[in-house]
Amino acid sequence: MITHLQNTTTLHNGVKMPWLGLGVFQVEEGPELVNAVKSAIAYGYRSIDTAAIYGNESGVGQGIREGLRQADIPREALFVTSKVWNDDLGYEETLAAYETSLRKLGLDYLDLYLIHWPVAGKYKEAWRALETLYKAGKVKAIGVSNFQVHHLKDLMADAEIVPMVNQVEYHPRLTQQEVQTFCREHGIQMEAWSPLMQGQLLDHPLLVELARHYGKSVAQILLRWDLQNGVITIPKSTKPHRIAENASVFDFELTAEDMARIGALNENLRIGPDPDHFDF
Predict the structure, then answer these.
(1) What residues bind substrate, as annotated (predicted)?
(2) Mean pLDDT by 10 residues, the chain (280 residues)
(3) Which of 43, 45, 54, 113 is catalytic?
(4) Among this protein's residues, is 123 annotated catalytic?
């Protein structure tokens, strides 16, 4: 039972990763971003997720530094994720991209580094680079994002290290059952991006009904559904009250029946690109 914002799951290499974190996709550099990261840390979040392509690693780094100082907690208390972009996939290119991300964030290491998209013919060399960074102790854990089962199988055929995490689009309209089953069987922790389907589910009648029943918001119902499915979740928000609301999901539990009703909304419907038909 996940009962606290700072509860963690243990990745297959023994590293502990918080179940809930702050996502910063589409949040531009500037005071709003810095304050969002600071607010999250002050409220008790211990996981921050960014990516090179978001173009906001510097602001995230500033928010982390100020947030840690304000909360008087060490860097080690925070779990920071970034991702290598498609243009930088390749052995040397990925090693260089990692150093660039570290420099922008102003950190000595990352807790998790992911390959952002499974670009055919490129992700294996990038993975080799991630394995090098991991073995050198420059990153605590390595993983992938947007990988389907066939991508994972292809990567793992040559990999020395099985990915620790696979971050994918995940919400009740896209439950990714096949990916989730494969990840579970191979000890790969699944993580949800766009858990709220960018707001598109907030007025769904079933979810509104459940929110009323549990005395919660629809967003809280969705995030609790992620957690009870064993999926790490990283909702994005820049508003302090929303950051707090998104984290208030540890004082109730959805019944098995309600979990199934939410899962039955699946239509294999994506709001983001399809990893198999994405113009990289």
Answers:
(1) 116
(2) 92 98 88 95 97 94 97 97 97 98 98 97 97 98 98 98 98 97 98 94 97 98 98 94 96 98 96 86
(3) 54
(4) no
